[in-house]
Design brief:
The protein has two domains: about 1-195 and about 330-390, no CATH class; about 205-320, no CATH class. About 40% of the residues are buried. The protein is an alpha+beta fold. The protein has 16 helices and nine strands. The strands form three sheets. The chain has a five-stranded antiparallel β-sheet, with helices on both faces. The protein has a two-stranded antiparallel ribbon with strand order 3-7. The longest helix has 22 residues, at about 15-40. It is elongated and about 70 Å long. The chain has helices at about 15-40, 40-45, 50-60, 70-80, 85-90, 100, 105-115, 120-135, 210-220, 225-240, 260-265, 280-290, 295-300, 305-320, 350-365, 370-390; strands at about 1-10, 90-95, 140, 145-150, 155-165, 170-175, 200, 240-245, 265-270.
């Protein structure tokens, strides 16, 4: 399941080298403690929780509300756990920008290095599909630039990726977890954090099942017939702002305008709503007609199929099959050591060093069979949970 989405402001600047080193050491040590106490699957579960991840970054000394928290924390973990991956049975690949595009290659390299028996090719495809869902099927205006995959020897995995919206100056973080995942294209979201956007076409929402089925069926029909319907849609858009009720794709029911029941057979299209290029759609239709997909996931994974193709197919699906799409945007923080931007207070090096020392002692004693400090931390966590609950 996808376990959450988080929105954070885009921030410039960089993480000071001295702070990154402490984040790297402290972050790696915390993950080692969790593996020792709960196993690798618990690490994956926690990383997949946007609230826990945000709090984790704050504990490491990053400012809670910055987009840089995602990329720096993931980078710090990847570097801090680089030499411990084999021992822990936890493997980290991908990252920001160019590093994100190297994820499939790093998966194979990691498997060869540690002699993993995982289905690495399936893991590669998972990485690609997860990225395709958030970049093409969830059309929320955020362009992905960060893709980070963590997996264990048993084939369990989590993905943390982030997109950028240059207009509103926010970044949105997407968390994925393989646990209980049965369908990448139907309601993969479980928890949502952040501010909802308007005019979001979420083609993996459960209520858009009819649109998905119709889109697949359209790919099996003659391109000439589909082009006629689509060209009519484009023509309507150019001539008038009022179209038959069927074209509800151009209306977001949450934007304050009348519902279909209230408005009757007429709706109003927002002028900023994008219309995909007919020329590009023409090319993709012929490609898919020769080898039509059998499922929406196969359509989504097809090379060259992006947001424009999926949106165009959804438009045609509504007119030809009456599949009205719905709009549903798939959208909690803590301080322990301060933030790098001195908010809410400067990072205390002494506090970071003390926390790191305590956790390292816990690990060393735990390896020797002494669990007293781990038990103390567990009791402290339970007391804190009671205080929050009450």
């Amino acid at each position: 399941m996808k376990t959450g989405v988080a929105n954070v402001p885009l921030h410039g600047g960089f993480c000071p080298p001295w702070l990154f080193k402490k984040m790297r050491d402290l972050g790696a040590t915390i993950i080692e403690v969790i593996v020792m106490e709960y196993g690798t699957t618990e690490v994956l579960r926690r990383l997949s929780d946007p609230v826990w991840f945000q709090s984790f970054g704050s504990v490491l000394g990053f400012d809670w509300h910055s987009s840089g928290l995602t990329t720096v924390v993931c980078g710090a973990l990847k570097e801090g756990l680089r030499d411990a991956q084999g021992e822990l049975g936890l493997f980290l690949v991908g990252g920001k920008g160019k590093a994100s595009r190297k994820t499939p290659t790093e998966i194979i390299e990691t498997g060869d290095k540690y002699g993993l028996s995982n289905d690495l090719f399936a893991l590669q495809q998972t990485s690609r599909t997860v990225a395709k869902v958030d970049s093409a099927a969830v059309q929320d205006g955020y362009q992905l630039y960060h893709h980070f995959l963590v997996f264990d020897r048993d084939g369990n995995w989590t993905v943390i990726q982030q997109g950028m919206n240059s207009k509103n100056r926010y970044a949105r973080r997407y968390h994925w977890l393989n646990e209980d995942l049965t369908d990448f294209t139907r309601d993969p979201h479980k928890a949502v954090c952040g501010t909802k956007e308007k005019h979001v076409l979420n083609l993996v929402a459960g209520k858009n099942e009819a649109t998905r089925l119709a889109s697949v069926e359209i790919c099996q029909e003659k391109p000439e017939e589909i082009k006629k319907v689509y060209n009519a849609i484009v023509e309507h858009n150019g001539k008038t702002k009022q179209v038959p009720e069927q074209l509800s794709l151009f209306e977001d029911p949450d934007d304050g305008r009348l519902t279909h029941e209230q408005a009757g057979s007429i709706i109003t299209m927002p002028p900023e709503h994008p219309i995909p290029s007919p020329r590009y759609l023409d090319k993709m239709l012929y490609k898919m007609y020769d080898h039509p997909p059998e499922t929406y996931r196969q359509l989504l994974e097809r090379k060259g199929v992006g947001p424009s193709t999926l949106r165009a197919l959804a438009m045609v699906a509504e007119v030809t099959h009456g599949a009205q799409p719905t709009f549903h945007d798939p959208v909690r923080y803590a301080f322990a050591h301060g933030g790098k931007d001195n908010f809410p207070f400067p990072v205390s090096r002494e506090d970071v060093d003390h926390s790191l020392s305590v956790l390292q002692t816990v690990i060393e004693k735990g390896k020797m069979g002494e669990k007293d400090k781990l038990e103390s931390l567990r009791r402290l966590a339970k007391q804190q949970e009671k205080l929050v609950t009450n």
